[in-house]
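Structure tokens please, single chain.
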Amino acid sequence: YLNNFQKSLSKLLEGNTINIAVNGDKYEYDTSSNLFICIFDLQNHKVDKEKNTAIGFNDEHYKAKDINEIRDPKYGLIPELLNKMPNIITINKNTEDEIYDIILNDESGVVSKTRKMLYEEYGIEIKNLESIVKIISKQIIEKKSSTKDAIRTVQKMLEKIKHKVYENPGKYNEVVLGKNILNDNNDFILRKIDKKIKTKKM
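Here you go.
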């Protein structure tokens, strides 16, 4: 199945006229002027179910030390396909620091958006967020999970806080995350504190 797929993909890359159907109508489409960006993750593909052998350049048994090694057939990519790819790169897994930075500082991410929304609309600051994200980042590395799993964990963690704030607008100006909030979404404290700076009279 995988080889057939790669052969079909190879025909697209080399430039061919193909037939496509849209809403029941058939059209001819020429792929010769297209730019193709292909992403492969073959590490879980089983070549031999009985021997439980796998292919893919992230597999523990066949880990490419050099980019050119990927052209070796043992990695599962057929020559007909590879020969039509002039530029090949590998993508490394994120480090713990990179995962931390993605979760905490990505401006389009759920943490940055929630943090900004709570502060700008309700005047609420989130305390202990950095330390909680560090714990999550470490767990992702240890469990070999994806960054998406980490983001879902944070999203679930913040959801309850947002609902509590929505129900009580203007009542709080600070939320303190508890050490156990990853296991218990109720482990946080919403509070109102006086943030005025008092100056001593001279």
